[in-house]
Amino acid sequence: MVFNSIEFILLLLVVFVAYYAPGSGRQQIPVLVAASFFFYGYHDPSLLFLLVFSVLLNATLSYWLLKDLPVGRQKCLAATGIVVNLSLLAFFKYATLMVSTLGHFLADGEFGRFLLGIPLPIGISFYTFHSISLLVDILRAKNKPNAPRLVTCTSYWGHLVNTTLYISFFPQLVSGPIVKANQMYPQFSRKYFKDIPWEFVFRRLVLGYFLKMVVADNLKEVTALIVYPHFLQLSSVNLVSLLFAFSVQIFADFAGYSIIAVGLAALFGYKFPDNFNLPYKSASVTEFWRRWHISLSSWLRDYLYISLGGNRKGTLRTYGNLFIVMFLGGLWHGAAWSYAMWGTWHGLALAIERPLLKDKPLRPSPGFWLYVRGAVVFVFVSFAWLLFKLPNFHDVLLYVKALCTNHALKPNIPQLVVIPCYVLPVAIYHFYENLPLFLAHHFRPLLYALMLLGILFCSGTPGTFIYFQF
Amino acid sequence: MKTFVGKTAAILLVSLLLYVGMMQCVPPPMSGFIPYQDDPSRRMAIAEHLAFLPPQVDTVVVGSSMTQRLSQRYYSFPPSILNAGITGGETLTYMEILSRAAKKPRLVLVEVNMLGGEPSPFLIERTTGSLWHSIKRLNAFREDWKPMNILLRCLNNVRKTRSGNAPPPNDMPSPENFKVALDYTIKHYNTILTTNKVLNVLTQLKPLVERLEADGVKVCFFATPVHPDIGSILERQVVQHARAMFPPAKYDWFVVDHAAEWHTTDGVHLTQPSCIVFAGQLEAFIARFASNGSTNHAQM
Questions:
Q1: Which end of chain A, N or C, is more open, meaning fewer C-beta atoms within 10 Å of its C-beta?
Q2: ipTM of the modeled complex
């Protein structure tokens, strides 16, 4: 089920009424759990088996971890949980990559065909990361005095219900944001209708749905031309505009989803962290990664980069860790080497930037150089997105070649009109805070009314969210 | 009304009324080649045209991109003919919508080169479902009145005004490019046209044709000329099955030879000059029915 479907709106209404109905206090979490399972299994109930297995495994292991066990056994339990979680992810997500990489050793055999036929459960990357976060946070809370502590139930049943909601809560289940256990568990308590932050919810939902239904869904059809061999027929101007259009589309699609998720969570009394903070305003790739998919970046930093030693073990090791994190971060996005290459491409940029930005502010003071650096980062990031859109690296090279050589072809004018019209709202969104405060404040209701009008009259063909495949 | 949500709701209400009212005053697009922002937009616009057939339309041509190229401006009286050709074909979808529509055309021509796949429940529901049908009576909710499509239409009108009545460009490719495109098309057609798929579509098409004929609509069939190498594939995989399902003894067929005088850009899509010739012949075929009094086309 997707957020932009009638079925979801109906489900939301039913769940909202049941959640805040008088006397629903003890049933609030079970209501959300039931709704999440219905949401996840709506189109394919068989997906629930793996989710339920993951929930039971992690709830049981984390419950044992909470008991007073010797440190060695605690570490052993946590390591077992992490290995099983990662094995499930590797088996369901990367089996096809393994077969395609090992080629004829596997693909021709019975086992190879079996691996190729394994379906990819939606959202597995997200709930695996939630599960690992739970195990690591409990372990850290018990062994590090200054680590945030988890508020947990004493009974297994209570812990199981809370953990089920933490892993499967429908706003974040299939595309994040990745909420850490130490952010979510302290929030498990009775929620009241009077505490709903209506204005916050309204603004998040309107903005999220606008980005998805108007910007991303309309640009999706235009950028569908970025496919071999169709792009070979397009002029250089069109190819450049399509490249930037895809950048905006992927932002609007993913940020739209995350913003809706944050709004929905707030509707049920939960606070999710923001996943995007105007990423295309970044003046460096380092800054970009602090603004883009923040929950993934911080997850990778907290649970992988720091675990590998971070920047505490010398310069060489720091760069090595950076590459490993970006490589694995890229591969997390999809089971294809182009995603790993995309991560490495960003890793390379981060490594080059690191000595240049040392002892300097991440963001220079407003002026000419800020805009030049912003433009360079945007162009760099846009070219990197090509590896997302064209998983075959040969096609990426052909695209770049066509972009350099097709300048004599006649441009497709309608396309050049359509793209800026849908890119403009994202540009306004990025630079809105630059307006004088009183102007921004007075224009806000008008902008939200316009966004609602856009959702009503300018929505594109409904499509699934790009990040569903990850 | 002092809160943020209240202010937004008030502005929305006023602008909603203004917008819907304003769109009721914007005239519908004139016939001819109308640009849409993308393919789904065009698909939906055609579906809406069929569900709310303009009064002057008495002939609908349903087909694929081969039909889509037969621009309405190539006919002598464009407003009477509605071109429902779309890439890949939506034959079952559009025939279903036509069979449900309140106003029906007098003649429907079905292109059999490319029949498309399963009908689209999305397009059918969004145009003929009772709630959506009522909503779409308001121009503001129709594809033709989407701001982006209005903008593109205006730009197209400006461009047409500037270029005057210049003949369409000859889009005949170079022999080398044609060879590459033809090879690609042959490979593509050998892959996508499977007998089971074609028979499945034809079986679903049969009751729709019968339903339309029961409502007094004449349904005819035609195939646009293609390169002989493609023609043999189409004949074997599609046309002969279509003829078996809709025998020429019972249904009218407009047939042309896949002869050398027809030029295509890639083996299947006629070049613009060939499109003009073919559209002329198709119009003469339509006029034959008109002269029998079955369409008002002859009254022109």
A1: N
A2: 0.74
